[in-house]
Amino acid sequence: MSNKVSTIGVLTSGGDAPGMNAAIRAVVRTAIANGLKVKGIRRGYSGLLEEDIIDMDASSVSDIIQRGGTILYTARCLEFKTPEGQQKGAEICRKHGIDGLVVIGGDGSFQGARKLANLGINTVALPGTIDLDIACTDYTIGFDTAVNTAMEAIDKVRDTSTSHERCSIIEVMGRNAGYIALWCGIANGAEDILITERYDHDEAKIIENIKHSRSIGKKHHIIVNAEGIGDSNGMAKRIEAATGMETRATIIGHIQRGGSPTCIDRVYASEMGAYAVDLLCKGESNRVVGYRSGGLVDYDIQEALEMQKDIDQYLYDVSRTLSRSLQS
Ligand SMILES: Nc1ncnc2c1ncn2[C@@H]1O[C@H](COP(=O)(O)OP(=O)(O)O)[C@@H](O)[C@H]1O
Ligand SMILES: O=P(O)(O)OC[C@H]1O[C@](O)(COP(=O)(O)O)[C@@H](O)[C@@H]1O
Ligand SMILES: [Mg+2]
Fold it and tell me: 52, 57, 63, 131: which one is catalytic?
């Protein structure tokens, strides 16, 4: 079957995520294997509007699969939210012969991808965000690395917290989503896990929990707090005042976005990058790639953006049971 596109453009947009390089590499090499040309668009939609576009060949993506960040750089671009910006972006694609585009980013980037598809540029989006907050997929590029980085950091905080017999509040990223917090809370054996989707703002309950932990001889109290709840420093002061237990807040921050991707992020991002090119070769457009029930799937971008996602209730219940198992 002949290819429906001849030149593929690829860009990364929004927050970077470990594994984006693996996805770029897969897009470039799969396109070349299909006899297509590839152009890298640097700095997301910003770079598109500034025509920051480079030719890419197989060697442009050598030695990157193990690297965090994105070799194409990334940006957030206000101008691209306007119809004029989108029109200009589509014209620039046409000017450079880009008739197929792979956008790697989060839900905001998908909105831009949909607009370009509507303007006649065949576009496929890949979910690249550490937050796992994209409804149509059980996996997003970067989550696995980020959650492992956060888990290792929390283990380290726990060591010092135990030595000093302190309470530690550790804030993890996730924007409004609590996936990183929930997974770390379970993986680190936290005493309390505060996630945006379920938090009832009942600090008195946390304070009671800490007092109880102390009364049964626990040497530390680890609270994993989601970024969407925030206020970790304020919470630490209030908890220390109410319990008398020395309390420290640690905001892990952008370290969670960097670092060498895990094997899962390298392999799934590679598979998704190849799949995006396969879709474009078949003449598909306006699709977003996801991972569900052990395999790749793709959806209309608009449909994907309308889907809703919630924390897995069973996993949440398990986290509650396990963190409270020492209570009477
Ligand atoms: N409604 C929209 N229409 C067109 N482009 C958009 C829209 N929303 C976001 N974008 C583009 O996508 C970029 C990245 O979105 P953002 O929400 O910051 O990150 P992410 O893609 O990681 O969720 C924005 O800076 C903007 O250029
Ligand atoms: O790097 P910035 O601009 O401070 O953004 C921080 C945000 O980006 C993230 O790290 C990733 O979010 P996106 O993938 O949606 O860009 C969030 O967890 C966090 O809230
Ligand atoms: Mg987002």
Answer: 131
